[in-house]
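## Example pair
The file below holds two records. Each record gives the amino-acid sequence first, followed by its structure token line.
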Amino acid sequence: MDIVCLDMEGVLVPEIWIAFAEASGIPELRRTTRDEPDYDKLMKGRIAILKEHGLGLAQIKEVISTIEPLDGAKAFLDELRTLTQVIIISDSFYQFAMPLMPKLGYPTLFCNTLEAAPNGEITGYRMRVQNSKLTTVKALQSIGFDTIASGDSHNDIAMIQASKAGFLFKSTDAIKAQYPEIPAYETFDELLSAIKGALS
């Protein structure tokens, strides 16, 4: 029995932190897991920058309310879910991701939780589990699923490599060059075709 595990940001929706960096005029916030493999280092840096500029959850959510899925993302998900079960496994946070779920047709979402003060200042974050994407894929395999995975960033590589089939999607040239053995696609039609080919 197959289950497809997809990353969210950069695959189905634009990168939230990049959108916020552009809206806030803070270029340092453009860094994502495409640029920094160490997620803890990345998040601590983001939290420090937000604190320095007096920005918090309210300002980020305001930007998120303007974000739309990537062109074709919802149609891709809709068709994929007629073929097999699908889970979005993201290192983002429920506070960021939930407002986007209606725009994607309410897919199943596994992600993390931000810690915030009453005034909305982001003070920390709590991972659902360590190495959440790989851990989730391994857990699904332990209960009888064959996983097919796709993502765009460094933090997606482990779940892609651990799955029976895996694909890079809209990734960077540097990541594609680092992992030439992983098929890489740029359009939802290509990715859907590849997943269909991998379904047993």
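Second record, same layout:
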Amino acid sequence: MIPYDKREGKIWYNNELVDWSDVKVHVLSHGLHYASCVFEGERVYDGEIFKLEEHTKRFFYSAERMGFEIPYTLEEINAASKKIVSIQNVSNGYVRPVAWRGSEMMAISAQKTKIHVAVATWEWGSYFDPKLKIEGIKLNISKWRRPAPNTIPWDTKAAGLYMICTLSKHEAEKQGYTDSLMLDHEGYVAEATGANVFFKDSDGKLHTPTPDSFLDGITRRTIIEIAKSKNIEVIERKIKPDELSNFVGCFLTGTAAEVTPVSQIDKFNFKVCNTIIGLSDNYQEIVRKRKAA
């Protein structure tokens, strides 16, 4: 795989189109040292960004929660995202808007730092191995927990929130798993390292954790809408880890993960059932046919 700093083309950077290899961030940037950075992850399907407006609104919300203002309008970021996808000729890929505090100050306080914004895009296939998406991926249960909601800006895509996700995923991979299930600060099921989680019971109902200390994903909301349109009951509630034995199916949702079946979490096993396959197919129909809708 080509390293991300060695790729070719352009990146939208502070309202300019800059050669990919020339986009630089100073080593003393506040965003690097103190995690004062927010981002989005967006999918491109057939040349169009899925739910761009929702992602951009969350991008601005995340920045506001982090105490800084993005120096462009929502419309300008939407236009920049579409422009860079066109320039890079991305048909089916990923878009990464990112905003961070610069290097004007180097301490906890960052009131006078400049806010930098970049939007990059590249062709990108499945987040998980396509074979695993058919058979179902395997998760361990992380020793790291999502922090209490009064300790972090939990409802944002802020860089610092993903530190324990990286630690969890690395540990899972060392143990032979694909990803890791994270619990919340109270010990209830929360999410995977970069995706929300759903469970199916023997009656066909879907259960998903209440997003009160972790991100309520855009894909998560889309899948809930699809399920309800198919008369599948969706129950949002607190789920204890020992309840996993009561479920027959499990899957993850996320912009990167899309709809990914899960075959195992720790000692609990699940089947890749028709309900999950159907939701995945319905999701692909929506993202692929959006232009014609």
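Notes on the second record: The mean pLDDT is 96. Residues 130-292 form a domain with the D-amino Acid Aminotransferase; Chain A, domain 2 fold (CATH 3.20.10.10).
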